[in-house]
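Deliverable D2.4 — example input (structure tokens):
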């Protein structure tokens, strides 16, 4: 095995270890009849705070990060980590935005 191939194998095994440790750290799903874990409650609170702040700022991630007192890169990481996506805008939302803009201008 060449030196380059051995490095690739080493990197692949390190990545597998990282993935295994991440899955071990992932919050467990709630089990009916048992109280939720502290970790799962923290994750739920984090998701709630980030998603509500993003909705409040119309998905302006810089403003949301500033309001949450975290870095811009931090909020990007959390959005990816939790798989957050903007909810589809309804026609009522669009009309509300137009009315809001007209009343301010």
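Example output (designed residues):
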């Amino acid at each position: 095995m060449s030196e380059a191939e051995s490095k690739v194998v080493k990197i692949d095994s390190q990545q597998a270890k990282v993935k295994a440790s991440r899955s071990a750290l992932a919050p467990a799903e709630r089990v009916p009849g048992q109280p939720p874990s502290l970790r799962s409650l923290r994750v739920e609170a984090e998701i709630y705070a980030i998603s509500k702040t993003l909705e409040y700022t119309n998905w302006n991630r810089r403003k949301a990060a500033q309001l949450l007192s975290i870095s811009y890169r931090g909020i990007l990481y959390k959005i990816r980590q939790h798989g957050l996506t903007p909810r589809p805008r309804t026609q009522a939302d669009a009309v509300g935005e137009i009315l809001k803009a007209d009343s301010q201008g």
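The CA atoms of residues 62 and 72 lie 6 Å apart.
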